[in-house]
């Protein structure tokens, strides 16, 4: 049997339980790896063997029924992906797929009724083992349910692609297997019941007792489980529509999505054994492929490195934050106010130039609180508390007792220096002064202050409530207590924080602006906008360049570009065409098509590049810039750049961020003479 020496084994613990009304006891298998919910159950080779043994023992006991449940808050979150990078051959990958299929099939083929009591999170192989059971209950407290494998370069490889569409129909299965993973969504318990994934939904407080009683009713015939007949006439049409959507969004760059489509098509008529055999072959192909290795690397960054940022001072140095001041009351400042309010639940005060702006900012926050109540994401008691904690004033003295002050005003260094000079005379000596600047120097901003050591960069990404990245920038004088407090606050805000050196535009904006700079070099030279826009489709980026520019805003992009052009004029162009677009104020896209009026504005040369040439030049520029950033010590390692690009710019898992793609495509070595990542770390070279 294949082995993973690092596997945290999830044991299948069997016990006999008496249930009223049944003549025979029940065999209850509890999945438990011995840790709390912070280290979820998962299935590695040893865990699958433990489940296999438990099913054998349960069957031999001849119980009234066999049921599987999980430890508190967790059912099972799928395969133990830490062992996947250890698979060195396709044969080993096939063996892993077949092992899961063989063990899970025992539940499906059992002559004794089998039940899954999904008490907590059930993802991937965890949901698949439940799907193999004859019946399923789900707890209202189950945090997340789904088959997210496509998002990490894999497919549901232990029966999910064949069981789910034949249980709930192809529209729901396509949503769970394709749409949800690619939009980073999971099912809530109520949705799982409505779709038919679960047969019954019970409250968390008495979930196990209610599930046992319900299952006893099923076994005795007192409870009838009705499932709708599957409509097979619409099967092909749903998958045709799904394929068109995938092609439009991903342009064929994500093999796992295409494989999942093929398997869903197969599930319409194929026998279960043929379908699962195809799953095994597809899983083996993907596990050994570049995209899956990059995806697993990216998943590890998000799940582990993001929670343990490198270079952070001891958390014992962090100061307590009991009040937050926000300089500015515009949209970004108001979004920040809402975030600090919800997460820290301390007084938050806004200030701006006049009362009208302040009132508008406070009204935005209270309005968003009301919306959350309406969506049942916030109870009225908490909402009332938050409304009482938000305030605004044009009198800056209200910041006197604030522990953490953050500014979110226009990107102008002189303006920000003036603001801090004024507020330094108002706030208490130990208060943290944080700036949400996207590109300006923290060191210069603090240079003329009496206490520059308490100024720190605190760069959020828009929309603030959605994007999880927080770049925390250390100026030359920023001290450890300030930095420790910044990271502690970032953690309370539930953001993934990365320590960044004070360098122009920091990480995400520097990389994206170098990318945009190369795009406009091609445009200025004479390459048509549509050619440039489609040049990066083979990479499967979340947005084409023109759509990205429209989202960021041409004026913002131009401003950041100016900052970087001044710092590095030899690498960052000051594009006259981008300036024309900014001055015109026209939308770049109209009905998702490039605006013809924008095309008329451009003054270009006569050098027309192909899409391949545009992409090659841009990738070479990114490799050069990232190597320079690492040599400058902007971040500790290449992994931090990848983490920033994933969490701050939405770069896809199948690229691993950016450096694994530059490594495996050979661009890194061609441009810089070496790879970014150590051998074996997401660096499978294309053959």
From TrEMBL:
<dbReference type="GO" id="GO:0016509">
    <property type="term" value="F:long-chain (3S)-3-hydroxyacyl-CoA dehydrogenase (NAD+) activity"/>
</dbReference>
<feature type="domain" description="3-hydroxyacyl-CoA dehydrogenase NAD binding">
    <location>
        <begin position="323"/>
        <end position="502"/>
    </location>
</feature>
<dbReference type="InterPro" id="IPR006176">
    <property type="entry name" value="3-OHacyl-CoA_DH_NAD-bd"/>
</dbReference>
<dbReference type="InterPro" id="IPR036291">
    <property type="entry name" value="NAD(P)-bd_dom_sf"/>
</dbReference>
<comment type="similarity">
    <text>Belongs to the 3-hydroxyacyl-CoA dehydrogenase family.</text>
</comment>
<dbReference type="InterPro" id="IPR006108">
    <property type="entry name" value="3HC_DH_C"/>
</dbReference>
<keyword id="KW-0442">Lipid degradation</keyword>
<feature type="domain" description="3-hydroxyacyl-CoA dehydrogenase C-terminal">
    <location>
        <begin position="506"/>
        <end position="585"/>
    </location>
</feature>
<protein>
    <submittedName>
        <fullName>3-hydroxyacyl-CoA dehydrogenase</fullName>
    </submittedName>
</protein>
<dbReference type="GO" id="GO:0070403">
    <property type="term" value="F:NAD+ binding"/>
</dbReference>
<dbReference type="InterPro" id="IPR050136">
    <property type="entry name" value="FA_oxidation_alpha_subunit"/>
</dbReference>
<dbReference type="GO" id="GO:0006635">
    <property type="term" value="P:fatty acid beta-oxidation"/>
</dbReference>
<dbReference type="InterPro" id="IPR008927">
    <property type="entry name" value="6-PGluconate_DH-like_C_sf"/>
</dbReference>
<keyword id="KW-0456">Lyase</keyword>
<dbReference type="InterPro" id="IPR029045">
    <property type="entry name" value="ClpP/crotonase-like_dom_sf"/>
</dbReference>
<keyword id="KW-0560">Oxidoreductase</keyword>
<dbReference type="Pfam" id="PF00378">
    <property type="entry name" value="ECH_1"/>
</dbReference>
<keyword id="KW-0511">Multifunctional enzyme</keyword>
<keyword id="KW-0443">Lipid metabolism</keyword>
<dbReference type="InterPro" id="IPR001753">
    <property type="entry name" value="Enoyl-CoA_hydra/iso"/>
</dbReference>
<comment type="similarity">
    <text>In the central section; belongs to the 3-hydroxyacyl-CoA dehydrogenase family.</text>
</comment>
<keyword id="KW-0520">NAD</keyword>
<comment type="pathway">
    <text>Lipid metabolism; fatty acid beta-oxidation.</text>
</comment>
<keyword id="KW-0276">Fatty acid metabolism</keyword>
<dbReference type="GO" id="GO:0004300">
    <property type="term" value="F:enoyl-CoA hydratase activity"/>
</dbReference>
<comment type="pathway">
    <text>Lipid metabolism; butanoate metabolism.</text>
</comment>
<dbReference type="Pfam" id="PF00725">
    <property type="entry name" value="3HCDH"/>
</dbReference>
<dbReference type="Pfam" id="PF02737">
    <property type="entry name" value="3HCDH_N"/>
</dbReference>
């Amino acid at each position: 049997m294949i082995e993973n020496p690092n596997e945290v084994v999830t044991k299948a613990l069997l016990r006999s339980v008496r249930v009223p009304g049944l003549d025979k006891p029940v065999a209850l298998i509890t999945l438990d790896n011995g840790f709390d919910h912070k280290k979820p159950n998962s299935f590695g080779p040893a865990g699958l063997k433990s489940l296999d043994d438990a099913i054998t023992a349960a069957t031999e006991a001849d119980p009234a029924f066999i049921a599987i449940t999980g430890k508190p808050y967790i059912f099972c979150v799928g395969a133990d992906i830490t062992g996947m990078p250890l698979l060195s051959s396709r044969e080993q990958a096939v063996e892993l797929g077949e092992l899961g299929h063989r063990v899970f099939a025992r539940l499906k083929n059992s002559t004794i009724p089998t039940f899954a009591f999904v008490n907590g999170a059930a993802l991937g192989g965890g949901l698949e083992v439940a799907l193999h059971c004859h019946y399923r209950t789900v707890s209202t407290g189950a945090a997340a349910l789904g088959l997210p494998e496509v998002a990490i370069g894999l497919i549901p490889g232990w029966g999910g692609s064949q069981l789910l569409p034949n249980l709930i129909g192809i529209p729901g299965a396509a949503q769970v297997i394709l749409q949800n993973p690619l939009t980073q969504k999971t099912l809530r318990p109520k949705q799982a019941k409505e779709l038919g994934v679960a047969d019954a939904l019970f409250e968390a407080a008495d979930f196990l007792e209610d599930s046992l009683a319900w299952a006893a009713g099923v076994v005795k015939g007192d409870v009838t489980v009705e499932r709708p007949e599957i409509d097979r006439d619409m099967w092909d049409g749903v998958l045709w529509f799904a394929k068109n959507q995938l092609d439009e969004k991903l342009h064929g760059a994500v093999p796992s999505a295409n494989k999942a489509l093929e398997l869903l098509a197969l599930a319409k008529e194929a026998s279960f054994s043929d379908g699962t055999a195809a799953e095994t072959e597809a899983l083996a192909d993907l596990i050994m492929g570049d995209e899956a290795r990059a995806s697993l690397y990216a998943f590890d960054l998000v799940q582990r490195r993001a929670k343990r940022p490198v270079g952070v001072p001891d958390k014992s140095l962090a100061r307590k934050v009991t009040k937050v001041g926000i300089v500015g009351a515009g949209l970004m400042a108001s979004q920040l106010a809402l975030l600090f309010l919800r997460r820290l639940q301390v007084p938050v005060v806004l200030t701006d130039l006049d009362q009208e702006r302040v009132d508008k900012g406070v009204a935005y926050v209270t309005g968003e609180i009301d919306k959350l109540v309406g969506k049942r994401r916030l109870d009225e008691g908490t909402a009332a508390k938050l409304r009482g904690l938000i305030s605004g004033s044009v009198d800056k003295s209200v910041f006197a007792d604030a522990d953490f002050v953050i500014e979110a005003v226009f990107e102008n260094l002189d303006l920000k220096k003036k603001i801090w000079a004024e507020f330094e005379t108002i706030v208490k000596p130990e208060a943290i002064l944080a700036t949400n600047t996207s590109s300006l120097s923290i060191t210069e901003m603090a240079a003329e202050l009496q206490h520059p050591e308490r100024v720190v960069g605190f760069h959020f990404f828009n929309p603030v409530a959605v994007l999880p990245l927080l770049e925390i920038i250390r100026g030359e004088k920023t001290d450890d207590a300030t930095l420790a407090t910044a990271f502690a606050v970032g953690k309370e805000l539930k953001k993934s924080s990365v320590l960044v050196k004070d360098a122009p535009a920091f990480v995400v904006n520097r990389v994206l602006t170098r990318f945009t700079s190369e795009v406009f070099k091609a445009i200025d030279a004479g390459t048509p906008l549509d050619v440039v826009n489609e040049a990066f489709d083979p990479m499967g980026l979340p947005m084409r360049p023109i759509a990205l520019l429209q989202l960021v805003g041409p004026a913002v992009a131009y401003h950041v570009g100016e900052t970087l052009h001044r710092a590095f004029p030899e690498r960052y162009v000051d594009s006259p065409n981008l300036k024309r677009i900014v001055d015109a104020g026209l939308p770049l896209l109209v009905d998702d098509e490039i605006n013809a009026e924008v095309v008329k504005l451009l003054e270009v040369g006569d050098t027309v590049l192909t899409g391949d040439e545009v992409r090659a030049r841009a990738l070479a520029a990114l490799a050069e810039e990232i190597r320079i950033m690492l040599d400058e010590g902007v971040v500790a390692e290449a992994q931090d750049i990848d983490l920033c690009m994933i969490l701050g710019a939405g770069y896809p898992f199948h690229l691993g961020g950016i450096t694994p793609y530059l490594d495996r495509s050979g661009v890194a070595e061609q441009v810089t003479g070496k790879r970014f990542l150590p051998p074996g770390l997401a660096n499978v070279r294309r053959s």
